[in-house]
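Hi D.,

Good news: the full-assembly prediction came through. Inputs first.
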Amino acid sequence: MSRTKIGILTVAGLAIVAMVACRGGRQAGRPSASVESLMKARGLNEADVVAALKTYTPTGKPDEYYMFASGGHSGQVLVIGVPSMRILKYIAVFTPEPWQGYGFDDETKRILADGSPKGKALTWGDSHHPALSQTNGDYDGQFLFINDKANARVAVISLKDFNTSQIVRSDLIQQDHGASAVTPNTEYVIESSQFATPLGNTYAKLDNYEQQYRGAVIFWSFDRDKGRINKEKSFAVEVPPYSQDLASSGKLASDGWVFINSFNTEEATGGTREGKPAIESGASQSDMDYMHVINWRKAAEVAASGKAKPIKDLRVIPMQTAIDEGILYFIPEPKSPHGVDVTPDGKEICVSGKLDTHETIYSFEKIKGLIDAKTFAGKDRYGVPILPFQQSIRGQVEMGLGPLHTQFDGKGYGYTTLFIESKVARWSLSDLKVIDKIPVHYNVGHLSIPGSDTEHPDGKYLVALDKWSIDRFMPVGPLLPQNLQLIDITGEKMQLLYDLPIGLGEPHYAQMIRADLVKPWAFYKPVGINPVTHDKDPFAVTSEKEARMERRGDGVHVYMTAIRSHYVPDQIVVKQGDTVHIHLTNLEQTKDATHGFAIDSYNINLSLEPGKTNNVTFVADRPGVFPFYCTEFCSALHLEMAGYLLVEPKGGTESSAAVR
Ligand code: CUK
Ligand code: CUA
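Then the structure:
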């Protein structure tokens, strides 16, 4: 769009805003003839132009919020500016990503390997739920966590550089869903399994499901100073083989507790060929499943006291111990529930029943009273005490069809997605009544409001994460984009502002944070920073004079620098079979002066942001001549930023590993 057109549109918009503001006196703010003709030509109505004005963000102007959206099967996290809905970055997390050199250098290869099951390199992940770190129940802008549902991994992303710095995985569970959620001071990152398996993944027949299959809720201990999860300090709580679903941390009134909904308390495992019901119907027989109410502070004490038993690589509090110690309780929840969300004051827990038309609002005060008085309605088949349903709830909201997830705006309203209706409902927390519904397009799963899971939500925008987009965009074949829809929630009626097609799936949840709370580095400073430790890399060289090659016991070490527009050294000569360690430092201290480093046909591509040191190790197993070059258009002479790797065939006589 040309500058003049933007100008006209802006004028039009302002005029229309004025016009909308004083509906009675229309003549006051008529758009000019040229604006009217532009609107006509583009087929826009007033509402369209108002929506455009609320999202349009001129070049050079930053957004108000960062949105961190899961990238689903891509195993990545999308960073999106709100309200412009401009995509800023895909953070590589569970999947190799060439542009960022993720999974190509030694550091990020190690991160991916740490999160892989033994002997298996994973090349995809199913990222579901991002969780921003919190201090005193509010976002602190330091870290982001996200889970990989498919492979039971949890990742730590540093918001200093928007890079993944750690991935953890326990052999205890095979798959997760109730992750990630953090406790109010990010003491723990919570991950619970969805599909029950024998803990530690030993073999057991499905006939022995009730005896040998179990779920687990892992509490990953987070060391904020180190920016790392500490596996030794982490522990898990054994739970029945129900499908534990999402998790939500208590806060304020409910601080110290965590709430996890579940489904398939029927313990369906399929077996249609033997005449048993498919999991979908088998798991939908009962009218109630169980919300898990877990006292995590007590669990941490019990784990520290030595009552947890190691299974494979984690300490696990056995279910019976959790019952005896008052760690685990159940409350019935209707029917095949999905979302569980704690209100900002921590007093209530809202649960949606996928097959129920209600949202059930539990009162933590009542729950606590029942637990303290040991008023139980019974026990489940594993002996877990069940609190009486009616006495635990404050009430129910008649919501509509297929309620899934809820967010809060901090102004007294809850917002719940209705999957089957393809709508978002706004309802009042005080009288539990729906007061507005807005259609979304279509099949909405999660929704996101800035700070919804904190003590202070910032209810200005809502983003609906829609699974289907059917007729919203130009056709691109049978696999359609997902659709992220921005909704203004400041007015009496919710207003749809913008559609952002996401060409990779499937974004589940997103979290939004006010932009000024995140303070990322502009570049790595001083020169020679390791992107994972954020300390000086032991192999960094900080000037071209220090650049060199050395033959050592473990192979050839190349200490290399990059600066516009050359590498030093630019000729690397090794012998076939040599292990080559390249330690490459970008000497730049200028914003955006990123260099790349690719070696042809050796499957290597690094991203060297200014000041960063990257290490890459490979075996020069094929003789020949291999040009290397910079993959970022860094300067006018970028194409000249190149060099040669010469791999001399076995038995050759060239003097190798000399600095050229
Ligand atoms: S789940 Cu995707 S729509 Cu993994 Cu949070 Cu509900
Ligand atoms: Cu450095 Cu192109």
